[in-house]
Design brief:
Helices cover 41% and strands 23% of the residues. It has 349 residues and is α+β, with helices and mostly antiparallel strands. Strands 5, 6, 7, 8, 9 and 12 form a 6-stranded antiparallel β-sheet that branches. The mean pLDDT is 88.
């Protein structure tokens, strides 16, 4: 038997030794032999065809978990799997292309001096059907929208303290060019308030997702696995990134979004308000935009497609909030459910 060392196999397959070690760990491309003394990996020449297929699929951007499925299929079925994946990519790209075209048109259009944007909103928090207490906090005001999901014995005081520490922003004068710094300072205050509420214990904490309306743009702060979504032009976009173990596995290609739904560590946070640095950024706003902030009591049980349909069909934020909460509870309500929905309406100046 002619064996290829991992270095020779890497050169022939155009995969790095680091990638080959990862694919071995994921049982995607196992070496034919491992030296029991040194742990060194060896491959057969007939494994090069599969290795090259893996390399090509990675260039397509296919996640590793999906590559594993495709590589296990006979050629005709594998081809069908690749076609199905690329159809999904093209559909997602089309949605993003349409949004990009919309944004270009809006940014290059003459300024609308006769209208201004007004924020209309509603917030609701529900304990769900299983949990004995509600550790979520939801808030909506003329400028501030926020959802916090507490955990630990003092989870409810922690989430409440985080949102309460931001509420002054609802009436404060905001410097237009410095809103992110103002929001960052407010979050520092919220972090200290959460530590005080939890007596400094690492067992207690909270997620936080909040939007601050400046009159023309929205400033976002986010940490944890509560989420913010934007409904624009009939398409739903998630504008936050979960800080969870499962999301990190998805990002690395070790897990698909479908597999994540039932993963045993799906609720394990990598960051929360007192244990990491939040994401901060600005979002441009357009008339007709609808924003949803929610705890994972909604996102974990109601698929994004259903969320989009409910947000689209609701005549106003209040109807949307109650439809979303009712749907989560109808799906079993395994966790507290909190939703904030806000829409931007053009009004006469």
């Amino acid at each position: 038997m002619e064996w290829l060392t991992i270095g020779a196999f890497a050169r022939a397959s155009r995969l790095s030794p680091k990638a080959l070690r990862l694919y071995d760990e994921l049982e995607l491309l196992r070496p034919a032999r491992v030296d029991p003394a040194t742990g060194y990996r060896y491959y057969r020449p007939d494994q090069l065809e599969q290795a090259r297929l893996v390399a090509w699929l990675r260039r397509l951007g296919m996640p590793l978990a999906r590559i594993r499925t495709v590589c296990a299929l006979p050629p005709a079925a594998a081809a069908d799997g690749i076609r199905a994946y690329w159809a999904e990519v093209e559909a997602e790209t089309a949605v993003r292309r349409d949004l990009a075209a919309f944004l270009v048109d809006e940014l290059t259009a003459p300024p609308r001096k006769d209208t201004m944007l007004e924020l209309r909103y509603c917030a609701h928090s529900d304990p769900g059907r299983v949990r004995p207490a509600n550790q979520d906090t939801a808030y909506a005001g003329a400028r501030l929208l926020a959802v916090a999901d507490g955990y630990g014995p003092a989870g409810a005081p922690a989430s409440s303290a985080a949102v309460a520490a931001l509420r002054f922003l609802d009436s404060a004068e905001l410097p237009a060019g410095d809103v992110l710094n103002v929001l960052e300072d407010a979050v520092h205050g919220a972090t200290e308030a959460v530590r005080d509420a939890g007596d400094g214990s690492d067992e207690n904490g909270t997620t936080l997702t909040a939007l601050l309306w400046t009159g023309s743009r929205l400033a976002l702060v986010h940490i944890g696995d509560s989420r913010a979504y934007l409904l624009r032009g009939g398409a739903l976009f998630r504008i936050t990134h979960d800080h969870t173990v499962v999301q990190s596995l998805i990002d690395e290609g070790r897990l698909t979004a479908e597999e994540a739904v039932t993963h045993p560590q799906r609720a394990l946070l990598l960051k929360a308000l007192t244990t990491g640095t939040p994401d901060l950024r600005l979002h441009d706003a357009e008339p007709g935009d609808r924003y949803l902030l929610c705890s994972d009591g909604l996102s974990a049980v109601v698929p994004d497609a259903a969320v989009r349909d409910l947000l689209t069909a609701a005549p106003d934020p209040e109807a949307a909030v109650h439809a979303l909460v009712d749907t989560a509870n109808a799906a079993g309500g395994p966790d507290n459910v909190s939703c904030v929905v806000a829409e931007l309406v053009a009004t006469a100046a």
